[in-house]
Write a structure and sequence with these properties.
- The protein is globular, with a radius of gyration of 24 Å.
- It is an alpha+beta fold.
- Mean pLDDT is 95; it is low at 7-18.
- It is built from 17 helices and 32 strands.
- Bound molecules: guanosine-5'-triphosphate (GTP), oxaloacetate ion (OAA) and manganese (II) ion.
- Its main location: cytoplasm.
- It catalyses: oxaloacetate + GTP = phosphoenolpyruvate + GDP + CO2.
- Residues 261-617 form the Phosphoenolpyruvate carboxykinase C-terminal P-loop domain.
Length: 619
């Protein structure tokens, strides 16, 4: 049996037959034997020089920061302008998620489905073993326990990541409830997810480290049946902060399927209408398509208020009253920097005032950060994300298009008071969206849950810089989960239908598109804060006070139902935003039929029926 196979603690026999504790020194008193034994087994495989058990303390954070300043991984920003904040410059080959190196290793290929890269689990273990063997030589292995969700919440889950990257430790400290509190919740009966991460750059004695160690070979591997994650070769957030996409979406989606809940790529907001009624909304958009922005929206519609609960991931579960309750399992934001400015997302700008790690942004001469869209005009001189001199006359962007900020959620000025309620919040509306230059209207309401699942299943979106690949290319991204669903996507749709059938008060479902363009390639809709006009219509629909118009693709806002006063929008633009072109939609239907065909018999019959009904309505 391979060393990599997850074994019960009692089965671990190290070559030296030493007790596990000797191979995992420093384990805090009371650490679960299952964790200690697993750490020992990973240490004997990866052979780090040292093991450090992370407690999540400020002192530990300071020590790691100091270490990274010494190795050049971090540069301190001007403390007067950006206190306790740092710039990290990644290796040019390691700046985004690598979807073609991301693997779902289920026993059966059909359980991974056509939207995932599948590898046979035994084959993958055999591939990984030599890569991880000795991969932490010359480095420290950090043991990073974390809780996804408030500590002890009935909706939360525990995990432990080992990593040889201090950048990953400090980032996980910002993004999750990390440290001693999480470890204390694990006893020998507790379920926890083991996640192994190595940058894959062992150091020989005397060898100088580089600022951003990584490896040209990358494997981001998930074993859904044994709930394991093995990530090799990258230190970029989406590939290396395993609590986030790898656990809270890919592994958690499988747990959710098995346990009757949903792990989704969704922001959560709390919205209060002018009458004081409170709603909660969850929304799924693909990477770099507006989740963080909507999560921090500042309404332009008078009397409405939006507060932030989460900006990327939602775990949703039916409650005893038949409503859908959601938590944000994270505790921080890993947000896209470019496009984040005082005029577009002032809340994010306020959130990153200090205590923030910026990755692959540009640096100003005064020691602060800059990125495209932060201010209207670029400074006269910058050091770009690669560390080179930059002036506005250059054609290349100063910040990488996927540059990011990492910051604790509690720093967000609009964070809702119930954002970390262990019971979660009741979801009143669900929104699906994508980045579509044409065809898809600004907003449309699903007729019912099944139609809503059809809208989610058929989302398509233009590719962004969040993952390696061709930016702008249109692809199907069902539920904004194409890169994040740990099992067969068609089964995910079936699961949504099943969960919906158990709900007494299912949320209303909508589809939005902030990104429709005119013939000259300009966005038709101003977006950002103005999206509150759409949100107001959505929640007025939930309340039953707004008018809708039936159309072949769903319910559109009736004329005048969305307040457009004060918008710099000519009537022609408004019509174009809502245009439903039957020819384009028939093409869309053909595309969906082809897409569904790739899943064969696994497509739920309800969705095929939705497709056929839509086709009929479009003639
Ligand atoms: N035109 C327009 N652009 C938007 C809007 N909302 C967000 N954007 C831009 O889209 C890009 C990504 O927005 P984010 O809110 O960071 O996207 P995200 O979905 O959180 O992305 P991930 O963190 O990668 O999952 C940024 O450059 C934004 O400025 C909008 O309403 N209209
Ligand atoms: O995971 C990442 O790299 C960042 C992110 O939020 C996404 O791509 O959706
Ligand atoms: Mn985001």
């Amino acid at each position: 049996m391979s060393l990599l196979a997850r074994t019960a603690p009692t089965q671990i026999v190290t070559p030296e037959r030493r007790p596990a504790e000797r191979l995992a020194p420093g384990a805090p008193a009371g650490a679960a034997a299952s964790v200690v034994a697993w750490v020992a087994s990973i240490a004997s495989l990866t052979t780090p020089d040292e093991i450090v058990w992370c407690d999540g303390s400020l002192r530990e954070n300071d020590l790691l920061t100091k270490l990274m300043l010494e190795t050049g991984t971090l540069t301190r920003l001007n403390p007067e302008l950006r206190p306790n904040s740092f710039l990290a410059r990644g290796d040019e080959s390691d700046v985004a998620r690598v979807e073609d190196r991301t693997f779902i290793c289920s026993a059966l290929e059909s359980d991974a489905g056509p939207t995932n890269n599948w590898r046979d689990p035994a084959e993958m273990r055999a591939t990984l073993e030599p890569l991880f063997s000795g991969s932490m030589r010359g480095r420290t292995m950090y043991v990073v326990p974390f809780s996804m969700g408030p500590l002890g919440s009935p909706l939360a889950k525990l995990g432990v990541q080992v990593t040889d990257s201090p950048y990953v430790v400090v980032s996980t400290g910002l993004m999750t409830r990390m440290g001693a509190g999480a470890l204390a919740l694990i006893d020998d009966d507790t379920e926890w997810v083991p996640a192994v991460h190595s940058v894959g750059a062992p150091l020989e004695s005397g060898q100088r480290d580089v600022a951003w160690p990584c490896n040209g070979t990358k494997y981001i591997s998930h074993f859904p049946e044994t709930r394991e994650i093995w990530s090799f070769g990258s230190a970029y957030g989406g590939n290396a902060l395993l609590a986030k996409k790898a656990f809270a979406l890919r592994i958690a989606s499988v747990m959710a399927r098995d346990e009757g809940w949903l792990a989704e790529h969704m922001l959560i907001i709390k919205v209060t209408n002018p009458a004081g009624r409170v709603f909660h909304v969850a929304a799924a958009f693909p990477s770099a398509c507006g989740k963080t922005n909507l999560a921090m929206l500042q309404p332009t519609v008078p009397g409405w208020r939006v507060e932030t609960i989460g900006d990327d991931i939602a775990w949703l579960r039916p409650d005893a009253e038949g409503r859908l309750r959601a938590i944000n399992p994270e505790a921080g934001f890993f947000g896209v920097a470019p496009g984040t400015g005082v005029s577009t997302n002032p809340v994010a700008i306020d959130t990153v005032w200090g205590n923030t790690i910026f990755t692959n942004v540009a640096m100003r001469d005064d020691g602060d950060v800059w990125w495209e869209g932060m201010t209207e005009h670029a400074p006269e001189h910058l050091v770009d994300w690669r560390g080179e001199d930059w002036t506005p006359s250059l054609a290349t962007p100063a910040a990488h298009p996927n540059s990011r900020f990492t910051v604790a959620a509690r720093q967000c000025p609009t964070i809702a008071n119930d954002w970390d309620d262990p019971e979660g919040v009741v979801i009143d509306a669900i929104i699906f969206g994508g980045r579509r230059a044409s065809t898809v209207p600004l907003v449309v309401e699903a007729r019912d849950w099944e139609h809503g699942v059809y809208l989610g299943a058929t989302i398509s979106s233009e590719r962004t810089a969040a993952a390696e690949g061709t930016v702008g290319e249109l692809r199907r991204d069902p539920f904004a989960m194409a890169p994040f669903c740990g099992y067969n996507m068609a089964d995910h749709w079936a699961h949504w239908l099943e969960v919906g059938a158990t709900l007494e008060k299912a949320p209303a479902v909508f589809q939005v598109n902030w990104f429709r363009k005119d013939a000259d390639g300009r966005f038709l809709w101003p977006g950002f804060g103005e999206n509150s006009r759409v949100l107001a219509w959505i929640l007025d629909r939930v309340e039953g006070t707004a008018d809708g118009l039936d159309s072949p693709i769903g319910v559109l806002p009736a004329p005048g139902a969305i307040d457009t006063s004060g918008l710099d929008l000519d009537p022609g633009d408004w019509d174009k935003l809502f245009e439903v072109d039957p020819t384009a939609h028939r093409r869309e239907v053909d595309g969906v039929a082809e897409f569904f065909a790739g899943f064969g018999e696994r497509v739920p019959s309800q969705l095929t029926a939705q497709l056929e009904a839509l086709r009929t309505r479009l003639v």
